[in-house]
Specification:
The protein is of the alpha/beta class. Helix content is about 35%, strand content about 25%.
Length: about 425
Amino acid sequence: MIQVLHGNFLYTPSLGTLETVPDGYLVLQDGRTVGIFSELPERFSDAERTDFKNALILPAFTDLHLHAPQYPMLGMGMDLPLLDWLERYTFRTEARFGDPDYARRIYRELAQKLIENGTTRVAMFSSLHTDATLILMEELENAGVSGYVGKVSMDRNSPDYYTESTEQSKRETLRWLKECERFRTVRPILTPRFTPSCSDGLMRWLGDVAREYDLPVQSHLSENHSEIAWVKELAPSCERYWETYARAGLWKPKTLMAHCVYSDEIERKAMRDYGVTAIHCADSNINIASGTAPVRQMLEEGVHVALGSDIAGGAQINMLEVMQMTIRASKFKRMESGWKTDFLSVAEAFYLGTTAGSSYFGAKPGFGEGEPLHAVVIEEGRLPDADRLTLRERFERAVYLSKPQDIVAVYAEGKRVK
Ligand SMILES: [Zn+2]
């Protein structure tokens, strides 16, 4: 079936560039993009048309680091540093997902919330519970969110009520991977919580599984000082934090590492050389006072960077708000550096939250030809004077001021889901 969407198209094909197609037409065949045209070619003139008039049509958002079982504690515990925050809030909240009914209710709401906010692709942490992880994957797939979900592995330094033995962890991971075969658009990703939570034996086993099953990996890296000192104590033979993953075979292309706030030149070079993606979570890093990551520097050095909301360390599920925080954090970094490093522009932050994220899933920049459409449609009805502004100005304002109710349509995997 051929469909045509009409409106103003904007996307960021590369870092710092913003392409616009005002008053354009996007043609879809069976949900896949045929192309964007300034004039609708004659051969498509009879196709079913959805007219979004003067609205902005943008690529949908990607969130490459968030914790689904922390959704109920969004906006809480923000006065605590990372390790206390884990102890006093996070583990208790995540432990509740041993109850499948609770998991079903919360995860259905979360999946809906992601779609309402225009996030259609994710890399997500679940809890350590296999059944709740499968429920999460089902709910995401039903709502139209695609990407990767990981059952969390954690067999040490965890509270009695929320931990697994090494054997149990291995057994449950294999059961989970077997059950995952039934999903189409949500796929498994191996997820050692972070080095302090995983014994050396479990880490190495996960490395073997990653190789054997050809699976991607996600975890945390160099988020805060006390965490880094703890890793050093637990793995004295590793000069730097990243080596604890590398020696287990978990440091490879398609590995996602959240935060990287204190990754030094050598750690950043290891990311670039091995094709590891750094997931910048500005809102979370500021909320729990971890620090501000050297994003500009990473980009200049050729490290692949994408954005994560990191709920519930981050308090914003809306990726436009995460982009704003990314810009503010980069300006703070600039001031902190004595005005030596550049901040991130609006188009650059938007690139990190769309193109950079979707490329992790193999997508082309923008509305890639031949690919299933992932897009959001934003109306600015609440805001004054849209007629007097350029498309670029409207884009900038949309990034700063749009609320979920302004996102009037969302397309994911070629289907309209909002
Ligand atoms: Zn995290």
